[in-house]
């Protein structure tokens, strides 16, 4: 496994990666955005757009990234985000959902 450090600071570059419809590019864009963009509202919207993606790994990344946004920025629309997360029914994603909600509860008061 190769470790890659994704960190993007330019929203337009991220949006170009997202438009490729390549799942690996989408995942790197989400991770890189969370690591490099200092706009929690934009990040929240980005992640929410992908939590129900048809690809498991894209969804998992978006879900986990919501917890990361809470941890890094200490800001999130808690009720809105948790409501969206609780609507996820894919059993394979429930562990990630629960972890994200725990992070949100821990970092957003």
TrEMBL record:
Entry-linked InterPro entries: CdiI_Ct-like
Top-level taxonomic group: Bacteria
Protein name: HEAT repeat domain-containing protein
The species this protein was found in: Flavobacterium cupreum
């Amino acid at each position: 496994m190769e470790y890659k450090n994704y960190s993007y600071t330019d929203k337009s570059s991220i949006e170009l990666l997202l438009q490729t419809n390549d799942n690996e590019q989408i995942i790197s864009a989400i991770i890189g955005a969370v690591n490099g963009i200092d706009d929690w509202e934009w990040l929240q919207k980005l992640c929410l757009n992908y939590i129900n993606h048809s690809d498991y790994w894209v969804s998992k990344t978006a879900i986990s990234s919501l917890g990361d946004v809470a941890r890094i920025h200490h800001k999130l629309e808690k009720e809105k985000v948790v409501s969206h997360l609780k609507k996820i029914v894919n059993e394979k994603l429930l562990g990630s959902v629960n972890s994200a909600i725990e992070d949100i509860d821990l970092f957003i008061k």
